[in-house]
Amino acid sequence: MAALLYRQGRACARHHWIVIGLWLVLAVVIVVVAKSAGSQTSDNLSLPGTGSTQSQDLLSSKLPDQAYGSNPVVVHTDKGKLTDATRKKAIEDSVTALGKVPGVIKATDPLKGSKNPGLSKDGQTAYISVFLSEGPGDLTEKDAQKVVDGSKPARDAGLGTATGGYVGKAVSKPSTESSEVVGLTAAVIILLLAFGTATAMALPIVTAVLGLAVSLSVIGLLGHAMEVPSVGATLATMIGLGVGIDYALFLVTRHKLQLGDGMEMGESIARAAATAGGAVAFAGGTVVIALVSLAFAGIPLVSALGYTAAVAVAVAVAAATTLLPALLGALGPRINSLRVQLGKTHPDDHQPHGWRRWAGGVAKRPATSIIVAVAVLAVLALPVLNLHLGVADVGASPKDTQQRKAYDMLTDGFGVGQNGPLLIAAQLGSPAKADQKNLDTLDDQQKQIDQQQQQAEAQGLPPDQAKQKTASQQQKLDDQKKQAESPATDTRLTGLSSAVAKAPGIKSVSPPALDKKADTAVFTAIATTAPSDRATETTVRNLRDSAIPKEVKGSDVKAYVGGQTAGYIDLADRISDKLPSIIAIVVGLSFIVLLLAFRSLLMPLKAGICNLLSVAAAYGVVTFVFQEGHGATLIGLDGATPIASFVPLLMFAILFGLSMDYEVFLLTQIKEHYDESGDARQAVIDGLASTGRVITSAALIMVFVFSSFILNGDPVVKQFGVGLAVAIAIDATLVRCLLVPAIMVSLGEASWWLPRWLARALPEISIEGEAFFAERDRREADAAPA
Fold first, then answer.
1. Sign (positive/negative) of CA torsion 625, 585, 240, 35?
2. What is the pTM (predicted TM-score) of this model?
């Protein structure tokens, strides 16, 4: 790979304007195409074999208008009641307008019917149930906005409105611009401190931003071919911006050091592309492998998030190894212009005495260093023992978003459980029929009314007056007959509905809706607790494991608990089952990659253990802040909030991959010094002294980039921001600069031990091309005149 990257780097530097032009054309074309195609995301919770997916599949085939549940358009007034004539008319007009929106199957009037099913007890809040032909995987933001606009008549009448469900979510995506600005500003300052020139500082920023524009556009286009989660672009922005700047930092640092040693400009760019670029390609490849391996979980949402983040990393590697050498070639010697000095000494004059003293101290007391590092990591990781994978809660979203407004209105008017309706889908072995026993009872009542009328006539009353005497009873009985003649009164359905209604944690149950063949039914159950509450999980499990099986036992009915809340519960369960195997797969693949790279058996083992410790510490901090709520208000939350089930899984893959970045850069330097001197202890000191400054600078940039996304209103993005920032900070300090060197000093020569039989079997791989450059330099020396 070194030979390829060397030739590529030299060619990019020599033909720099062509390469820069191609990158700009690529970026402009793909951004324009992506913008014209529009954005489409999908938070697909489909998980084959789970109750929520079985429910959705059944409804999709039999009751498609009910398959995705309803989207509530909530209407509220602070004065008077919604049943007042003017307000009632505004709601009716909104229902009519919503019914005309493309994709809307039906919109139900909350004030229609004697019981006003969608009206709160105080009469001030109501919700229009909107059913769409498009599910959350197909609904575009543009189409969702049309539904939101459909409630305009109610707004024009002075009523407060908000849209919930997956429609509300589609139009409630928090902006990330402020996070990107903060992250880039911090990166600019750190790069100025690291390089000391504004020109050198600009290179990683330009490379990362251009690469990010390309990767986000690619992800946007992928959204039309595959299901890309709504948080996918934000996660890719975090990763792409962080690694894009870091990878460029490593190359520019190597280039400046080589220029300082007197190397010719073109040769320096080519060598930086081959050496540091080789490490970047190797490290980036490790990150991509870790992210793509998430596909083994068999969870569409998680796999898609892994793919989108992998796209950002792959583009960052491509930009660092092609665009950056071209920019270096265009800049030439001006890389040292616009000199800036923010500290006491300029970075170009800096000597790594501080890092050498630190490395010497660690090497002098390795046992103490190991104990201190492990103790701190253990304390940070302790809360992970209480980690619970929860359900995403709209109640933690920014209060100015559509979905949060709808959530709060529904909570105030109907109770918090209204925000997470459970869909109970039932499949009947034979078509539902009206309850004949009930009809017989009503027939008996009809006979009694007829007898009363006949008796009144016998007493001398005219027929009209006799009929009038029993009119109210007859009207009531007629209504009961109409309802009783419906297949929904089938005893199998009424029994199931009653069993669900009586189950602990259920507040109410709606009447069932049936398909045309009357062999499939669905009804909605409202829990007493919030969708994110653990009590709701208990309610769902009780319905599935006890209440429903007990009721349908021995019958021809199959019933499933579905809906978005049940879907997220199933997702958490599936991730809990898959997390250990994914951890094993990622660790195993990383072990093999490092074994091939460094030809050592203990180094990959040590790297895996250290990375697991840093990930556990990050999990502990996320649990402490979000699940337990300590300091949650400081990051813009109202209090404790559930940890989204897919966050730990994604965090593991990302962090394990990024940790390998720093591991590779540190170990390549230590290995190089060890090969030169043969002194394992001194090689650790020299390797840490030469890489400590650049690794901490790179980590600091990553920490600020990730931390800046805490400003994002989405609690899931905040969890990623906190978790990734903490993990990188821990990895670059406690792990990479304390624990790893201490362990390597303790192991001594054994650090590089490899059984002979394995050494013969493994191919020779050089990350930074030491063998290639040794052979090349030898040939040049032989060709030089004596």
1. negative
2. 0.85
